[in-house]
Amino acid sequence: MTRFLYTLAIFALLPWAMLHLLWRARRQPEYLQHWGERFGFYGDLTAAAVPHAGHFIPATGHSVPPTPTFKTFWIHAVSVGETRAAQPLIAALRERFPACRILLTHMTPTGRAASVALFGDSVERVYLPYDTPGAMRRFLRHFRPTLGLIMETELWPNLIDACHAQGLPLLLVNARLSEKSARRYARFPRLARQALEQLSAISAIGEDDALRLRALGAAAVTVTGNMKFDMTPPAEQLEIGAMLRGRIGTRPVFLCASTREGEEALILDAWQAKVGAGDTAQCATLLVIVPRHPQRFDAVAQHVRQCGLKMQRRSDDAPVAADTQVWLGDSMGEMFAYYAAADVAFVGGSLLDFGCQNLIEPCAVGVPVLIGPSTFNFAEAARAALAAGAARQIGNAAGLVEQAQTIMADEACKQAMGDAGRAFAARHRGATRRTMALIPPREGEEEGRAFS
Question: Treating both helix axes as pointing N-terminal to C-terminal, what angle do 179-186 and 189-197 enclose, rounded to 10 degrees?
Fold first, then answer.
């Protein structure tokens, strides 16, 4: 009865969901694309990536479900962060199952675009439908996955029930559950418990996440660590970072990465106050801002101009002039490169109450990290990074700007924090291996290797 009421609520909200897509499309037209997929209709897909003889080739379009002559591993990665976190998992699956087919599902255009940038034609990507029973059955019938892996915390009761009814193993991996999210799920205890009990296994990032999941009714929970530690900086991204640094020159570089709405205004106000006071170190420093969401690039650029600061954009693909004060990172898929070009990095989503973005990446590159007070999305990693001396926490934008200048002025401190960051990132690797141990050998696994 609880899931029936949930399903009625989903159907009632579908008109609002359509209006929401139209609203988001004002800034990001990609929300108007692939609407059929959001209801479980995939008959017009083209260029689906399928394996053949141990490597991947683009397939022609198909209007019927593909024949399951090889294993299909389905990974649900809602948006950019989950998609990037799936990189080591996908690599491990391909190593263990060389002939496998990888299907990635997303909910946002930015997640889909990140998948294209990271994996190209080597995976198939679609939107996961809204959580209605019929749409989920159509999705499973079309792609016929042999294993499902949901990244982080996406509990869709009808999807989980459909997988359970078909005997499809479904794992929740790299699972994190903040206190706020746990309270939200706890409002519907029977629904949450049933969904968690129907999962084949759960790999949790940390002990706190595991405790909250168990309190909601999860049984098969294993603490495996965070797979984002297993994401090593790609060599090509480090090369781009060196190129960007060459375009900047010898000026100190303060990077504000993955900033969320409202944070840029606070940072720019604090920055302007120091520049206006004639602070020579501040005037010499280049402020680099990389907004989290690409649809906000133009709005942030407009705000910088309104502040009267001279700005250039990464998309101009030009050297940074000596009198440029703000460089807007308006490109996709280059975050590691921005970190590699920076002297100090602030990780956005932490100055305001968004829970913090991924602070593991700058640590892995060896750049000193600054974070704000809000870290619930990366609570364990933030605590460990602070304890290791790889990061420092500030309370407001003025403190952020002041602390950045303090670190950049002290070469020994900057080096020590960078070294601590690399050691911290290396020390916590291995979550992907531990997660893969939860995937039992499947019937025909060895036969699957014959395709390679």
Answer: 110
Q: Do domains 27-225+431-449 and 235-427 have the same CATH topology?
A: yes
Could you tell me if 303 and 295 are in contact, meaning their C-beta atoms sit under 8 angstroms apart?
no
CATH of 27-225+431-449, picked from 2.60.40.10, 3.40.50.11720, 2.60.120.280, 3.60.20.10, is: 3.40.50.11720
pTM of the complete model: 0.86
Q: Count the alpha carbons within 13 Å of 383 in the hemisphere toward its beta carbon.
A: 6
Chunked in runs of 10, what are the mean pLDDT values of the chain (452 residues)?
A: 90 94 90 94 58 35 43 94 94 91 95 92 96 96 96 93 96 94 94 95 95 94 96 93 95 97 96 79 90 93 94 95 96 93 98 96 97 95 97 97 96 97 97 92 47 28
Q: Which residues sit opposite 253 in a β-bridge?
A: 286
Q: Which CATH architecture has domain 235-427?
A: 3-Layer(aba) Sandwich (3.40)
| List 82, 154, 263, 334, catalytic entry | 82
For residue 374, the Cα-to-chain-centroid distance in whole angstroms is 17
- Distance between CA atoms of 101 and 145, rounded to whole angstroms? 9
- Look up 82 and say whether it is catalytic: yes
- Cα–Cα distance between 208 and 138 in angstroms, integer? 36
Residue pair 226/174 in contact by the 8 Å Cβ criterion: yes
